[in-house]
Amino acid sequence: AHLWRGVITEYAERLPMLDGAPVVTLGEGGTPLIEAEKLSKRVGARVFVKYEGLNPTGSFKDRGMTTAMSMAAKNGAKAVICASTGNTSASAAAYATKAGMTCAVLVPDGKIAMGKLSQAIAHGAQLLQVDGNFDDCLTVARKLAENYPVELVNSVNPARIEGQKTASFEIVDALGDAPDIHVLPVGNAGNITGYWRGYREYAAPFTTADGRELPAVSTKTPKMWGFQAEGASPIVAGHPFDEPETIATAIRIGNPASWKQAEEARDDSGGLIDSVSDDDILDAHRYLSSEEGIFVEPASAASIAGLLKKHAAGQVPAGATIVCTVTGHGLKDPQWALRNADGDDIQPERVDVDAYSVARALGLDS
Ligand code: F0G
């Protein structure tokens, strides 16, 4: 029997920064890599979905939060702060509770999915809705961390990226080598930075904190394909967006903190960063739920929407091994499932309480 112990313990020798830190964990990581047969057939490649919605708080943020909170504990911090479009705040609130710290979160006014908001409140975070967007919240959070005794746990904290790189390790460990292409949504651009670091580290010898050299695990690194939402696509446009807009509120970001690192991941891997429309995102969201059995929040579907866009343009290499990260669980922001492609509300059909009526409604008795 093997109990998954969370990413810090599972990948301890590859996380030298965490050496000697107390481990604050909720058992994050170890998420499924699901072979997506229908999607594979549709794009003519072998496609896997890394389902990060199955982390303890329902998003990939937990991988970086276990490391950030453990470093905060090592530094003797009593309080943490973050800016968030929702998932970071949910994760920070849960891990701060586990660590016995207080947590303050700054979120953009009125654009947070209900599931995420309720998580932060359930875990007792001090939640402030700021009259501004995510980028404004992050500016304020950074200033607070500079001037007050609170530790910033956004992805500008180096421990966050360090933890998030473990997703790449899990993928290579599962497939036996790196995929040809890795596709993921891009918001503040911490995750693409983390994945690229993980893939690079696994493709070369690695020196541990106690000076041992580990051999390379993979023979190659994948091309990194990142996708932003069209209305919040500063990296694609080459300039910040003052008023980013998208239904994918998780990635409604106009000036990503890790902009430069995202461009490096793109260029060094021979990859690309492109955008997808909100309609493409919602189509991909429906496709994943109805064809593959995987329920995600809209921002997560940007990776699948991106893959489908590239397929339509004839740019998906035949037979390639492709991993798409879906970053957050569908239950975070479930309202989108309750509308059809035309935007109409979907209502459950009402039936009388007898077997015949139910059988008729189900088309079993015709
Ligand atoms: N997908 C989801 C579900 C997210 O919550 C985020 C970011 C991203 C993708 C983009 O990842 O920022 O590393 O490029 N959410 C942050 C938050 C901004 O505050 O929860 P990224």
Automatic annotation (TrEMBL):
InterPro entries in the cross-refs: Ser/Thr_Dehydratase, Ser/Thr_deHydtase_PyrdxlP-BS, Thr_synthase-like, Thr_Synthase_bac/arc, TrpB-like_PALP, TrpB-like_PALP_sf
Organism domain of life: Bacteria
Gene3D superfamilies assigned: 3.40.50.1100
Keywords: Amino-acid biosynthesis, Lyase, Pyridoxal phosphate, Threonine biosynthesis
Pathway where it operates: Amino-acid biosynthesis; L-threonine biosynthesis; L-threonine from L-aspartate: step 5/5
Stored Pfam families: PALP
Residue ranges annotated for the Tryptophan synthase beta chain-like PALP domain, each copy included: 24-328
Class in the EC hierarchy, top level: lyase
Function, in words: Catalyzes the gamma-elimination of phosphate from L-phosphohomoserine and the beta-addition of water to produce L-threonine.
The family this protein is said to belong to: Belongs to the threonine synthase family.
Protein name: Threonine synthase
Organism: Dermacoccus barathri
Gene label: thrC
